[in-house]
Design a protein that fits this description.
Elements: E1 8-12, H1 16-27, E2 31-35, E3 54-56, H2 58-67, H3 70-75, E4 78-80, E5 82-87, E6 90-95, E7 104-107, H4 109-121, E8 126-129, E9 133-138, E10 146-150, E11 156-160, E12 163-166, H5 173-179, E13 185-200, E14 220-225, E15 228-234, E16 240-247, H6 254-257, H7 262-272, H8 283-289, E17 293-301, E18 304-305, E19 308-310, H9 313-316, H10 325-342, H11 347-379, H12 383-398, H13 405-411, H14 416-452
Parallel strand pairs: 1-2, 1-12, 2-8, 5-14, 12-19
Antiparallel strand pairs: 3-7, 4-7, 5-6, 9-10, 10-11, 13-16, 13-17, 14-15, 15-16, 18-19
Helix pairs in contact: 1-4, 1-10, 2-10, 10-11, 11-14
Length: 454
C-alpha cells in the first residue's frame, strides 16, 4: 500500500469488532490508533465484561480465517451440532442441519477478545490505548473527524484522524454524537425480558458419561418454559455458561423472586428446571451475585457522518438468540476493510459502499434474532415445531435450491437480507402446498361419499 492510500485511522472501542478491525486495517498498511475504555484484557486484573458465550459460525469463522486465527480459536471452542431441549422430563436433541458436519462453536467472549487484542497489538502500525473512554465525537470538519477521550485521572484528549470509526458498543458515544445531528434516525427497543448468568461447573470427577462435563457437551441446551427459558453453552474447561432469559415482571419473572429467601428460589428452579438444579451447586450464589441485565435492539440510519462511521453493536445492537451478534460484526469488519481497499483514494466512496452493503443486512438479522427468541422460548419443546424443522430439512435435501433458514444464516455467507427474503418465499410455497393438499383431501373425501351413496 502506498502512502497515498494509507490512512490515519482512529477506532473507539477494542471489543471483538474493534480489535479485529484494527488488526486487519494495520495489516492493510493503515496507521491505526485503537482506544478502549476498559483495562488491557491481557492483564490479570482485566474486567470480564459480558459473559454470554459466543456462538461462532461460518460468517465469523471466515473473518477469523482471514485474520489467520481460525484454527487457534477453534482449538479453544466446543462444537455444537444441535440443540438439546429439556421439556416434559425428556431430553430431545435437534440437529441444526441434515449435514452432520455442520455445527456452531461455543467460544468464550473474553477469551476471543483477548486473542484479538493480542493480534492487533502485534500488527505493525497499530497502537493500543487502554483506559481511555470515548465521551464525544466531532465531525464538523469533514476531512478531520475527532473523538474526545477521558482518562482515569480526569484528563481529556481530543484526537483527530482522517477516518474515525465508532466500534464502542450498543451505548456508543460516537453514535450519540451523530444523534445530535439532523436527519439521523435511531430506534431502540427493549424486550420485556432480561438475562442473568448462572453456572454449571465441571464435574467433581470424570467417571460420568460425559467426563468432566455434567451434561452433554456437544449441544446448546434449552429449558423452555412458556414466557421464560434458560440456556447453557459448554466451555472447554468442562463448565457451562447458563443464561436465564426471564421477564422482568410477572408471575415467572426476576421481579417475582426479588427478595425471595433461599428456599423459595431453589423451589422455583426445582419446579421449572428440575434436571438442571442437581448440576448447579452455586445456584443461590449466582442468583444473588449476578445482575439481571436488559436485552435491547438498536437500529440507526445512516451509519456515518462525514468521515466518521459506525460498526458492530454501535451501528446495530441485536438480541443474542440467533447467535449472530459477533458474526454480523465480523462481517462488518470485512466489508469496511474491503471497501477501503476497493476505493483506495476515496474515503467517502468507501464509507458509502460499506454502509450500502451492510445496513439492510443488519436490519434483517435484528428481525431474525427477535423471531428466534419467540421460537426458542415458546416453541422449541413443541412436536409441531420439530416436525416443521425436520420437514424444511427434508425439502432442502430433495428440492433444488431449497435451503432451511437456519442453514442460510449459520452455515452460509448468504447476506442476511437475502436469506430472510428467500425464507419468506419458501414459507409461502409451503403454505400453497398445504392449501392444495388440504383442498385435494376434501375433494377426494366428497367424491368418496358421493360414490358410496350413489
Amino acid at each position: 500500500m502506498t502512502q497515498s492510500t494509507s490512512h490515519d485511522i482512529v477506532i473507539a472501542g477494542a471489543g471483538l469488532a474493534g480489535a479485529l478491525l484494527a488488526a486487519e486495517l494495520g495489516k492493510a498498511g493503515h496507521r491505526v490508533r485503537l482506544f478502549e475504555r476498559r483495562r488491557d484484557p491481557r492483564r490479570a486484573d482485566a474486567e470480564s465484561g459480558r459473559s454470554i458465550n459466543l456462538a461462532i459460525s461460518v460468517r465469523g469463522l471466515h473473518a477469523l480465517q482471514r485474520a489467520g486465527i481460525e484454527e487457534k480459536v477453534l482449538a479453544e471452542a466446543i462444537r455444537m451440532p444441535g440443540r438439546m431441549v429439556h421439556a416434559g422430563g425428556e431430553e430431545i436433541f435437534s440437529p441444526y442441519s441434515r449435514d452432520p458436519a455442520r455445527a456452531i462453536n461455543s467460544v468464550s467472549r473474553s477469551g476471543l477478545n483477548r486473542m484479538l487484542v493480542e493480534i492487533a497489538a502485534a500488527t505493525p502500525g497499530v497502537e493500543l490505548i487502554f483506559e481511555a473512554r470515548c465521551v464525544d465525537a466531532d465531525f464538523e470538519n469533514h476531512d478531520r473527524p475527532a473523538a474526545t477521550f477521558e482518562f482515569p485521572d480526569g484528563r481529556r484528549e481530543r484526537v483527530e484522524a482522517e477516518l474515525l470509526i465508532g466500534a464502542d458498543g450498543a451505548y456508543s458515544a460516537v453514535r450519540a454524537a451523530m444523534q445530535r445531528t439532523t436527519r439521523f434516525d435511531f430506534s431502540q427497543t427493549y424486550l420485556d425480558a432480561g438475562y442473568k448468568e448462572m453456572t454449571i461447573p465441571p464435574a467433581d470427577d470424570e467417571s460420568g458419561p460425559h467426563g468432566r462435563f455434567r451434561i452433554e457437551p456437544l449441544a446448546l441446551h434449552v429449558w423452555p418454559h412458556g414466557g421464560s427459558m434458560m440456556i447453557a453453552l459448554p466451555n472447554i474447561d468442562g463448565s457451562f455458561t447458563c443464561t436465564l432469559f426471564w421477564p422482568f415482571e410477572g408471575e415467572h419473572s426476576f421481579g417475582a423472586l426479588a427478595g425471595a429467601d433461599d428456599e423459595a428460589i431453589r423451589s422455583f428452579f426445582e419446579r421449572h428446571y428440575a434436571d438442571a438444579v442437581p448440576h448447579m451447586p452455586t445456584l443461590l450464589e449466582d442468583w444473588r451475585t449476578n445482575p439481571a441485565s436488559p436485552l435491547v435492539t438498536m437500529r440507526c440510519r445512516p451509519w456515518h457522518r462525514g468521515r466518521c462511521v459506525l460498526l458492530g453493536d454501535a451501528a446495530h445492537a441485536i438480541v443474542p438468540f440467533y447467535g449472530q451478534g459477533a458474526n454480523a460484526s465480523f462481517e462488518d469488519v470485512e466489508a469496511l476493510v474491503d471497501a477501503l481497499a476497493s476505493e483506495p483514494g476515496d474515503l467517502d466512496a468507501a464509507i458509502s459502499a460499506y454502509e450500502d452493503e451492510r445496513i439492510d443486512n443488519a436490519d434483517a438479522i435484528a428481525e431474525l434474532a427477535l423471531d428466534q427468541f419467540i421460537d426458542m422460548r415458546d416453541r422449541s419443546g413443541s412436536r409441531w415445531q420439530r416436525f416443521k424443522k425436520k420437514g424444511s430439512q427434508v425439502l432442502g435435501a430433495i428440492v433444488p435450491g431449497w435451503i432451511p433458514l437456519y442453514d442460510m444464516v449459520s452455515f452460509t455467507r448468504i447476506p442476511y437480507a437475502k436469506a430472510l427474503a428467500k425464507s419468506r418465499r419458501q414459507a409461502d410455497a409451503i403454505r400453497v402446498i398445504v392449501t392444495i393438499a388440504s383442498a385435494a383431501t376434501v375433494i377426494l373425501g366428497l367424491l368418496g361419499v358421493m360414490w358410496m351413496t350413489r
